[in-house]
Amino acid sequence: MKQMAFDLDFDKHFNASLVMACDHCGKETSRHLKSLAPDTVVRCSCGCDIEITSRHILAATERQRQIKSSYRLMT
Ligand SMILES: [Zn+2]
Q1: Range of the structural domain that residue 34 is part of
Q2: Model pTM?
Q3: What is the pLDDT of residues 43-72, one digit of tens each?
Q4: Alpha carbon of 37 to ligand 1 centroid (Å)
């Protein structure tokens, strides 16, 4: 199974967005992490689908937790 590339982005209120790179065109699509449900399909502007599984959401939520706690250490 192919591993989806994703990253996290935070706005000034510390709401996380999941940023996913399209396999085909490389374009990044972002969705608010809170608004994502497992097994959501996000349509890239090139027309291909990016599937978000519960595993991605779990990994993103875990990374969000780590990033938030490291920010707290710095401030
Ligand atoms: Zn695409």
Answers
A1: 6-74
A2: 0.77
A3: 999 999 999 999 999 999 999 999 889 888
A4: 21
